[in-house]
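Database export, one record per block. Field names are fixed; values are copied verbatim from the stored entry.
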Amino acid sequence: MTELAPTLATSPEPTVEGFAAQYLRSLTYTQGTTMELASPNDKYQALADTARAYLMDRWNRTRSRQQHRGARGVAYLSAEYLLGRQLDNALLSCGLTDIARDAMASLGLNIDDLRALEPEPGLGNGGLGRLAACFIDSLATLSIPAIGYGIRYEYGIFRQTWVDGRQVEEADNWLDNGSPWEVARPDQVQIVNFGGRVEHDGDKATWIPEFSVRAIPFNYMVPGYQNGRVNTLRLWSARATKEFDLQIFNNGDYVDAVRARTFAENITKVLYPEDSTPQGKELRLQQQYFFVSASLYDFIDRLMGEGVEPSTLPDRVTFQLNDTHPVIGIPELMRILVDERGFTWDDAWDITQRSFAYTCHTLLPEALEVWPVALMEKLLPRHMEIIYRINEQFLTQVRAKYGNDEMLIRRMSIIAEYPERAVRMAHLAAVGTRAINGVAELHSQLLREKVFHDFAELNPEKFTNVTNGITPRRFLSLSNPSLSGLITEAIGDGWITDLSQLSRLEPLADDADFRRRVRDIKSANKQKLVGFLKERDGVDLEAGSMFDVMIKRMHEYKRQMLKVLHVVSMYDDLKSGRVSPDDMLHRTVVFGAKAAPGYVMAKEIIALIKHVEAVVNAHPVASRALRISFPANYNVTVAETLIPAADLSEQISLAGQEASGTGNMKFALNGALTIGTDDGANVEIRKLVGDDNFFLFGMNEPEVSALRDSGYNPQSFYEGNETLRRAMELIASGEFSDGNRQMFESIVSNLLYEDRFMVLADFESYLTQQAAVEAYYRDQEAWSRSAILNIARTGFFSSDRSIQDYLDRIWFAPAVEIPA
């Protein structure tokens, strides 16, 4: 098929003059104001619109070329995308960073003042969402035809604030001033149905839904790095099919007149609504089905092109399921193919299995989603019928191979019978996809051996590993421009799209002048962070201290409690006089984390950290050597300032619990050394950077399993370690709670009598390695050498490499270059 002729519209000139002229056009004709009358938000919006203008022509050419090439591609289905601010990334991708700065200066504007006005999109929470954002960045940079699908959350997950040292959740009003980065397409609406009943006429099933909602798409541009490609992230917003009932309104019932609108819009109000109630569970399932159904219809009816048969779907796309949230797409595609497109069951199942692939991001049983059968039958009755049939067909295959091993059948069934009948979504993914991958070598091994052991025995060819990665564009080029510039000066700029080139820095680890320059950059980054936290939170930190950083989602398995116990033990040493502030290495400990609103223990741990922070920072002796900072509302924007300043990266989860982690990669890439267990991607980081440049502590996974099997007794570790005992007694005494001995009793009791994640068992080993950290940090030449080797040896952890692994092992989608 011949390609469309290029459109007449072209991008503005990529010069200072061209950028300034486009900015003034945007200010005048888009914002409808002048430089004299414009508000600060007007000026930011005009700057964003100007950057977008440089992307728009590339975006149109990308979509046109893909449509007419019929290229095989990837549809990435994810419940969250933690994008970060968009302006800097847009400018970087177009090579306009310096041009934009100079253009704004020529107009008398400071671009940094305008950049600070950009709200961060409330579209994600933690590692899962940030990984999805890195992956769509790399897909575009590698010129892969791809589209991301997700949800446009009106209020994000929540905005974290502190009240009396405790987390309080507020709405994240990130859309208050609109978003210049999204393009609404209400003309491409999809209808999503829920509830009702199923009518059968012979082999034909007809779903009669109880209610429907409209899915309105909002498109975000996803630019590749200076390669002309701009892919699309399509996010769905829920609207009522009938938003306003005029007759009810005229009868005086104003609330009921908009009831349907309120009900529908609740689906996309917040990310991960609290699900401890039946209503919360129902809303979560509604969210997942809503965006998956809209996305499948969108791809089949719009992106495949008119006249293209759904039978060719596996040849055109891989639907990548990012964890279990989008797994409901498997029965949804079956329903579309069988009930609406007239395919036989067997043909539809063949198409479905070959179209989907699944990434598992956890080893925790409670994180593998299950949905009560009763809820599925209420909300998605036809899908429940399809799941029953898939399960029946699958278990017939299992019996044919293994006989009537009833325990095996129960373990492998998609339907769990106890404690309530429920659909195991991870099992459905294992049955209904052609490929399953873990996200680090150890994680993938444990998936095969433990989580999906029976499925891996049945279909070993389905299982593979793709170790996670991070985009160097955001987490080095943008977040650490001084270090990025030094690297480019030393080895050229090819590393930006080929991170393996960082290995060429290794010889410079022995260059004293290069080590000094790396130290100077780290020092400047610390000064920047200290100023940022002083202005933002009013906290005073010591820029000359070692910055010891633990930033990750608050969860017991990530073991923030282990770090707290270490902090309390240092405070105890200083307060008691056992160690003088002049003798202790000065240390600033920074935490960053949000706890799920319904996760009581996680919120208690946050409260303990905040109370320890208040006491330590106010102590006249301890605060001379030890400072704590726990800034509220940790997000990508905070990370971009915090990570480049870190000296020590805390990756201290219990071995065998973390899937991968990507914060560990970001820190190492920016020259921080890691203290960590052999868990997740730590294993691969340690192998690559070398044992001499990594502080390993704690049990490995087989040792954890052996201790658990032998009967773990946390009290024996408490009684056997005086430092640990003093730290826990200090917490229990009310030292950090104004004398209230009950405030943190639940934490102390949990550690003493349960300690599921073996904090006490690893405490002694952790303290031993922390002592090694202190000794090593005092030798700044040696520390700087290790920092440079960490940078040089972490090129493997680029998300570009991760995406290439997916392409080689699962997706098999070729690059499609976009001509200039």
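Remark 1: The two ends are 20 Å apart (CA to CA).
Remark 2: Confidence is low (pLDDT under 50) at residues 1-8.
End of record.
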